[in-house]
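Structure in, sequence out. Go:
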């Protein structure tokens, strides 16, 4: 029987609390079975389907996913796939029109994402607790059996009764600096004084204070002040108020689980060869350094380095990088674009209209959407939620590609706080919005950034979201880098634009644009060519010429910093002209011809400028005859110099070797 069933779908009305459109769901599977109480009265039917299935069974319920996974294990079947159609679609005032969205969600749930690579992490239980004596010692007592605890007291509470048994290290001092991340924290301690054992009614500390740098796996600060790594936080670091006993107990529970061997996802993979941070000692692009909220990125030679133990996977670096050097892995760009294509294609085939892709963080968006489904009117029928590890990894080329694939609008659900890391996402929305508005697309095509923590406010924001018909239905290939995806997507949008301009001005600092060279100042020294990390500037071995390829220019500014004449400026823009994909000449000159052999070499303008600069300033080129040497090629220059009596190899006659006769003659003369 299973050989005749390619894709079976089990859907449940959840005790008739939501309508189901079987015809729409058939777009997502070959066989659709509708149930009423699948996780209760009809559980045997689910077990039977698991046994009959060939491993591609889909159950449209995430609420009872643990139960169904357990039942599958008990009957020896492969665990089913799961899709949420209840909070996302069924529990909604527009549930009767949500069939296309349900089909899209079920189809997308079958799409497997490439897992993120991992880094091995071993936590030996080294724990530093810093803070006031009473709560810090209380927390240490809760975790002393599973962790190797070191307590650093920061106040003057010597009247606290010393412990009868020293089960963990107790010292007094100050945590001056904390760096690193989980498993690799580096704590710099100042004025450290160890506890003395002979304190009877109060804690006594040594008068011998010293500094120390120590390493810990996890760190807890118990204080009334702000968290050290606010607002973004850092994995393995905890901050708790001294008076919050419940929070102290919760931290103790979490700490007990942080011992052993773990696998930490590598949220970002860095291609150092694409990084444009610096060249030849000059600093260029630093977008990722400025955007990273956790300071996980630091300069490292001509590129940057990302500390995997600090990186929390916000994705800001991936969004703002002009070259795509840091690639986000949760999910990868190709997987995200494919998932979006599947959602939009299935939604359209099932009869859906004006789709809105609502991207949200799993930790923030899922509870908010669930609350809206339970206490409000739920999501509109055309709003398709897409859960991500972080929405900040959404860059302008992804938005453009999804709009080209048929999305009427892109929306991002973010926390209400105006956090530092949201600047990157806001910048990407603004960049894509500038392109759309310049091409004449209506305002309701521009991506919307929805900031709220309130489900009812979210309902109002979605209700007021203006949505039009899709501007294009032409999926974009994810092959190539981020700039390739951007160009393909924007060219598709340009082909249907109401106002198809050849060039769109962009804000200063945008990752696209051209290099403008003042030909009167340029000497064709080609310093800009040697510093360009993207290969956008090039020379011509046959002629003194500076060439430029706008398509690959990163606008990193290294060429401007390298130019000794100040002849280079940058112009941020997006060009749809064919010339943007071709080499164009920025500056050229006639070659200098050697008066002796006729060989062409160098730039006439550059050599004449060197001569005019050296004349009267350098004694080696004081006369016209000396200056004329610079007009010769490298071979003839040596010949001309030797003819002027300045041959560096002309050292005169070598001295005659002395012989025995010379010594004898000298002896005769002496006699």
């Amino acid at each position: 029987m299973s050989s005749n069933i390619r894709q079976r779908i089990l859907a449940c009305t959840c005790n008739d609390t939501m309508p189901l459109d079987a015809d729409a769901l058939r777009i997502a599977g070959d066989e659709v079975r509708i149930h009423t109480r699948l996780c209760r009265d009809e559980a045997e039917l689910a077990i039977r389907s698991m046994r009959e299935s060939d491993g591609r069974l889909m159950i449209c319920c995430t609420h009872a996913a643990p139960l169904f996974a357990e039942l599958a294990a008990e009957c020896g079947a492969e665990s089913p796939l799961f899709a949420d159609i209840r909070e996302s679609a069924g529990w909604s005032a527009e549930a009767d029109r949500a069939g296309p969205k349900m089909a899209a969600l079920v189809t997308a749930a079958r799409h497997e994402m490439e897992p993120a690579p991992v880094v091995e992490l071993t936590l030996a239980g080294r724990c530093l607790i810093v803070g006031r004596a009473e709560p810090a010692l209380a927390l240490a007592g809760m975790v002393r059996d599973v962790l190797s605890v070191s307590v650093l007291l920061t106040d003057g509470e010597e009247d606290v009764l010393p412990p009868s048994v020293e089960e963990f290290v107790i010292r007094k001092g100050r945590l001056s600096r904390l760096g690193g991340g989980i498993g690799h924290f580096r704590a710099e301690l100042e004025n450290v004084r160890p506890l003395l054992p002979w304190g009877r009614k109060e804690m006594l500390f040594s008068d011998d204070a010293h500094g120390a740098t120590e390493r810990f796996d996890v760190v807890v600060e118990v204080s009334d002040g702000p968290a050290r790594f606010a607002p973004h936080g850092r994995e393995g670091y905890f901050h708790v108020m001294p008076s919050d006993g419940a929070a102290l107990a919760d931290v103790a529970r979490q700490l007990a689980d942080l011992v052993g061997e773990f696998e930490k996802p590598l949220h970002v993979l860095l291609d150092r060869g694409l990084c444009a941070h610096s060249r030849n000692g000059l600093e260029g692009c630093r977008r990722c350094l400025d955007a990273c909220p956790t300071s996980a990125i630091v300069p490292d030679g001509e590129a940057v380095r990302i500390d995997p133990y600090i990186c929390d996977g916000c994705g800001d670096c991936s969004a703002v990088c002009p070259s795509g050097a840091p690639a986000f892995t949760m999910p990868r760009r190709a997987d995200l674009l494919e998932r979006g294509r599947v959602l939009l294609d299935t939604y359209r085939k099932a009869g859906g209209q004006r789709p809105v892709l609502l991207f949200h963080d799993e930790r923030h968006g899922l509870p908010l959407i669930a609350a809206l489904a339970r206490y409000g009117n739920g999501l509109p029928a055309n709003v398709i939620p897409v859960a991500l590890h972080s929405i900040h990894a959404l860059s302008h080329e992804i938005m453009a590609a999804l709009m080209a694939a048929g999305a009427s609008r892109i929306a991002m659900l973010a926390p209400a706080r105006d956090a530092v890391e949201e600047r990157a996402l806001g910048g990407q929305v603004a960049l894509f919005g500038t392109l759309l508005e310049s091409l004449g697309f209506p305002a309701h095509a521009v991506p919307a950034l929805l900031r709220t923590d309130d489900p009812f406010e979210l309902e109002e924001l979605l209700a007021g979201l203006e949505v039009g018909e899709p501007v294009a239905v032409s999926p974009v290939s994810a092959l190539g880098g981020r700039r390739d995806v951007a160009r393909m997507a924007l060219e598709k949008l340009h082909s249907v634009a109401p106002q198809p301009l050849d060039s769109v001005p962009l804000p200063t600092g945008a990752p696209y644009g051209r290099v403008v060279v003042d030909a009167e100042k340029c000497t064709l020294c080609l310093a800009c060519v040697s510093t360009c990390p993207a290969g956008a500037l090039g020379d011509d071995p046959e002629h003194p010429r500076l060439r430029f390829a706008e398509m690959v220019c990163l606008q990193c500014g290294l060429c401007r910093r390298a130019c000794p004449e100040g002849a280079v400026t940058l112009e941020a823009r997006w060009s749809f002209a064919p010339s943007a994909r071709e080499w164009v000449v920025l500056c050229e000159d006639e070659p200098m011809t050697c008066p002796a052999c006729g060989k062409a070499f160098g730039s006439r303008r550059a050599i004449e400028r060197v001569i005019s600069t050296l004349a009267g300033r350098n004694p080696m080129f004081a006369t016209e005859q000396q200056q004329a040497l610079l007009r010769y090629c490298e071979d003839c220059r040596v010949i001309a110099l030797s003819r002027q009596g300045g041959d560096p190899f002309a050292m005169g006659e070598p001295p005659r070797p002395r012989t025995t006769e010379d010594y004898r003659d000298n002896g005769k003369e002496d006699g």
